[in-house]
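Hey, I'm writing a tutorial for new members on how sequence and structure tokens pair up, and I'd like a real worked example in the thread rather than a made-up one. If someone can provide the structure for the chain below, I'll link this post from the tutorial.
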Amino acid sequence: MPPTISPPIYFSQFNVTSQVFHRTPLSYALVNLKPLKPGHVLICPRRVAPTFQDLNRSEIADLFETAQVVSGMIRRVYDAPAVNIAIQDGPEAGQTVPHLHIHIIPRHRGDFGGQADRVYDLLESREGYVGGALKERWSGVDDGLRRARGEDEMRTEAELLRMEMEKAPFAGSTGESGEDDGTSSTNFTS
């Protein structure tokens, strides 16, 4: 029997299927075209919904459950004691792609020059302008502030993270008892 081919996955109008490393019936996780730091990934609803208010209850539940599972994996893989979980809900909040998404950003003591809240400034700045970078990627132009990564680099990272997602349980994941089993695995920071 031939392999089942999934339909393409879109981040707004952009086909990001090769960047996706985790899927649920209502959400997906993908590597970031212009990450603020290694391990910065995005969680999106499968349906292109511009804002949080456009989601239904099932999509909200699935989106946040996916964010919890993926952030646990990111903490483990990038040896991060903390993560930022952020939504820029609308253009006035810094959203540059009209498809709701959650940023998962691994954090370490002293990153961003020891200014922990600087991450929010970077998300809202030209440096965090992923919408423009997506358009520029297809036109071959980069904004020069933060390098847009190539398709091969993102596909490779997505495959590594896909394999890591299969290694459950992981830090941040709990079993029926609610206890973390402390399972450890690959660490990309070494």
